[in-house]
Amino acid sequence: MEHIHKHHHEIKNSSEKKTLIVIIFTFVTMIAEIIYGYLTNSMALLADGWHMGTHALALGIAYGAYICIRKIAEKRYSNIISEKISALAGFTSSLFLTVTAIWILFESFEKFIIPLNISFNEAILVAFIGLGVNLISVFIMEYKSCNSQKDYNYKAAYLHILTDAMTSFFAILALVLGKFWGLYFLDPVMGIVGAVLILRWGIMLVKNTSGILLDLKLLKE
Asked: Which of 114, 82, 115 lies closest to 15, judged by CA?
């Protein structure tokens, strides 16, 4: 039992370190995009910079949860409390995912009604920057055993990065097809596809984490 507890604790420490690295990486990229966006009057860069800021905030919640879990590791009922903290952080992050999906849906439908002129070269550059940053972050975090360990905090943080990479990929695909083949309608279409997938993941995570938060039987063990 002690060996299992130690192994579980090592996994938590590894997840905490990886989350911190990704937070720093995301935050530095966010600052660079915002500064460069202001200097060049690029709304695309500014928008992507602030968008990355929302992910940095969600990752910050995940990291804060790991700090709390580490501080109570030696206390009585620490496993139960740790699971609750992890679920609460995951639940909060899943709400961020859900709100992000709804916002993307709203923006995409609005573009169908009121199409906007797209600066393709700049937008494609920003999308590639976002995709590169998030692919590196996905590689750093490695999903691997977080599902089997029911670490919904880490799972939510991972999904934030994965969804950002996915939306960047869809954006690149739509922008390239729009620039070279004139398929401008694909930009909002890809936005809707991405939003539906994000919404599905967000709702699934809300269900999983809320089930743990409301399971009062755990407190009796």
From this structure: 82
